[in-house]
Amino acid sequence: MTVKTQIFRFEDAGLAYGDAAETLSDVNIDLGEGEFRFLTGPSGAGKTSLLKMIYLAMRPTRGKFFLFGEDAANAPREALPPLRRRIGVVFQEFRLLDHLTAFDNVALPMKVAGVNLNQYREDVSELLNWVGLGHRMDAKPATLSGGEQQRVALARALVSKPDLILADEPTGNVDPAMSERIMKLFVELNKLGAAVIVATHDLHLVQSLGKPVLRIADGRVSRAPGAGGGGGR
Ligand SMILES: Nc1ncnc2c1ncn2[C@@H]1O[C@H](COP(=O)(O)OP(=O)(O)OP(=O)(O)O)[C@@H](O)[C@H]1O
Ligand SMILES: [Mg+2]
């Protein structure tokens, strides 16, 4: 039994797209407050699909899913936004808004939440400086490289100080030095209390950081052998 507060828990969950066979089956995993997991598995295994269920973009087609103590698989639609606001997501395909500057893209979650600009201006600048884009705050996404766009997306996911951070291949477009910097940022945020899941193909980084690993293969999610850390099943 874990004594930590639970962030999420799947119970015998499955996910099928349309009439196809299940992409994910028999999902029985959980994450406690302040825990860190890498998520690995071959392309097409279902990493993004699992993350989508966690950030409530899709409901499991079978089984149970609890998020921040709520029965998210059955909750009415209007109950989902407050849960979603506690999650910061770095999407695999960035999803930046083309007509907004880097600053405004990062600031967007705060603006949408109705927070006054004076309360987040410094946080946005600090985050953009941290990811090495302090000099490009006024740039539109189309004028940024892929790696720079990825770093804007990273800053946007963190600006609201989420309880749970989900990152889908956050180092897919950056050089090795920046990859290491980004991964270390997740470890730091985790030390500050955020629960973190990072989907990645970069097994070298996974090994070097020594955090527990969830692996998806053949539609099943399991703890990789030898992975340390507690709390999950
Ligand atoms: N919207 C969708 N409709 C139908 N099938 C889908 C959809 N999205 C994903 N799939 C299928 O689900 C499976 C898992 O896809 P998913 O994107 O979760 O994999 P992944 O592990 O994130 O892969 P990658 O490492 O390439 O990002 C794949 O077979 C994919 O074709
Ligand atoms: Mg993916």
Summed up, what is this model?
32% of the residues lie in helices and 23% in strands.
Characterise the protein shown here.
- Helix content is 32%, strand content 23%.
- The chain is built from 7 helices and 11 strands.
- It has helices at residues 47-54, 80-84, 102-112, 117-130, 146-158, 176-191, 203-209, and strands at 6-15, 24-27, 30-32, 36-40, 62-67, 70-71, 87-90, 164-168, 195-199, 213-217, 220-223.
- Helix 6 links the parallel strand 8 (164-168) and strand 9.
- The model is unreliable at 228-233 (pLDDT under 50).
Reading side by side through the largest sheet, how are the strands ordered?
Answer: 7-8-9-4-10-11
Q: Regions with pLDDT < 50 over 5+ consecutive residues?
A: 228-233
Order of helices and strands: EEEEHEEHEHHHEHEHEE
Radius of gyration: 17 Å
Output the structural class.
Answer: alpha/beta
* Count, helices: 7
Considering DSSP H and I runs of 4 or more, what fraction of the residues is helical?
25-40%
Give the overall shape: globular
Q: What percentage of the residues does DSSP assign to strands (E)?
A: 15-25%
Strand count: 11
Major beta sheet, specifics? 6 strands, mixed
Fill in the keyword field for this structure.
233 residues; alpha/beta; 6-stranded mixed sheet; 5-stranded antiparallel sheet; 7 helices; 32% helix; globular; disordered C terminus; binds adenosine-5'-triphosphate; binds magnesium ion
Strand-helix topology:
Blueprint: E1 6-15, E2 24-27, E3 30-32, E4 36-40, H1 47-54, E5 62-67, E6 70-71, H2 80-84, E7 87-90, H3 102-112, H4 117-130, H5 146-158, E8 164-168, H6 176-191, E9 195-199, H7 203-209, E10 213-217, E11 220-223
